[in-house]
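Aggregate trends can hide what the representation actually does to any particular protein. The sequence in question and its structure tokens are set out directly beneath this paragraph.
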Amino acid sequence: MDVLMRHCKTHKLPTILSRTFLKALKRSHINCATHTSPPVSPPSKPTIPTPRVSRLFQPSNLREGQEGGELTCRSQRLMLQTGLIHPSNPGCFYYLPVALRSMEKLVRLIDEEMHAIGGQKVDMPALCSAKLWKTSGRWELMGKEMFRLQDRHNAEYCLGPTHEEAITELFASQSTVSYKKLPLLLYQVTRKFRDEQKPKFGLLRGREFYMKDMYSFDISEVAALDTYQSVCRAYGRLFDRLGLNWVQVQADTGNIGGTLSHEFQLPADIGEDRLLVCQNCGFSANVETMEPGQTHCSQCQTGVLSETRGIEVGHTFYLGTKYSQVFKALFVNASNEPSVAEMGCFGLGVTRILAASIEVLSSVDAICWPGLIAPFQVCVLPPKKGSKAQEATRISEDLAQSLGNSLANLKGEVVLDDRTQMTIGKRLKDAKILGYPYVVVVGQKALEDLPIFEVLRQRSGETMFLSKEGLVDLLSRVETI
């Protein structure tokens, strides 16, 4: 105010004008000081629309009761029948919306475990230069399983079946990496390509599939083996969280190379790998690594090895300097001198885990998902159109919307089966085949003064009758990813 008064005097403004102006300004100043603007409400969170079964793109590729000569396993038949996948060409599939929801959850779960041990996610080219593979000596070693091609300049490439060469070249391009940055664990989740001679079992053996592959760089063999064990433990936690029965077995290093290797197997009759397991000490090995006809355990010396079959879902390798020496993947050690990095590589078959979990957990006629990666956690069934309980349709819609938005763990996890032209029985059968962990039936009891809902817990076969409060309490404890 004083500054403005001096300004009026300096510029010789008329006294009346200056006094009038200053009085108005003063009144404005007082009003601003005594009257505050109404508080601004925080923006409301958008309401997630409830997915409806009638709108899902989920075409069945298998008529009920149809027997196909190519349908050689449970998971393949169930995934085709329920519209999770659709065949494209031999060994390749479309991943349809419901299956993709499950796979994305699986990837988030894998990300959690890899980040917990220091993994950093990258994305490498699927198109790999033949020059790298020839440098490592694997261009011819990979044989006919590798998809090879040439560009318009006659340069040779392959569609990456694995990425040891690519990641080692990437590390080698950074010649000043300090030992203080090691161990370095880089991983990706991407499509891989292998020209399988006889693709079969749906997603269990295909030509195009998703894999998580991680590559580690360490300062020494001791450090590299410590990293190796860390990743193996992370794999074990992953399979435990999925509720899968798994076994870690001694394995052959194959054309990946290295001096130490283990497979993570899910015991299953359909499995292509033969495993020997000691019931006395727990030692396990792929038959390929044992002497022909060996029946005694080489670890405890007293146990007898029994044979079983398994589906390989993960594989780990200690590579040493097999690739880092060739590509000059160096780091600067504590003496400020260049040193060759010790490496490991670690794979998880993402789409194979998806299919294998269905294979080992499901019954002949119904999918049972690992709880964390079920596409939807809850399915709400309104009454049939024209039934006595038809008035409960609105209650069903409100319930589905409320559960899917008010419970933090069920955001987007509730689906409404709005096909009310079908009976409850038919929709219950579909819900069982699709394996929703929880099914809520809204019937006549939902119209009572104290609404009661029928709740089916699919995995245990348990049926409960709960109030809305009881239902919310039950579902609020469902673990999601």
Summary: The domain at 376-475 is CATH 3.40.50.800 (Rossmann fold). The chain has two domains: 53-361, 376-475. DSSP finds eleven helices and 21 strands in the chain. The radius of gyration is 31 Å.
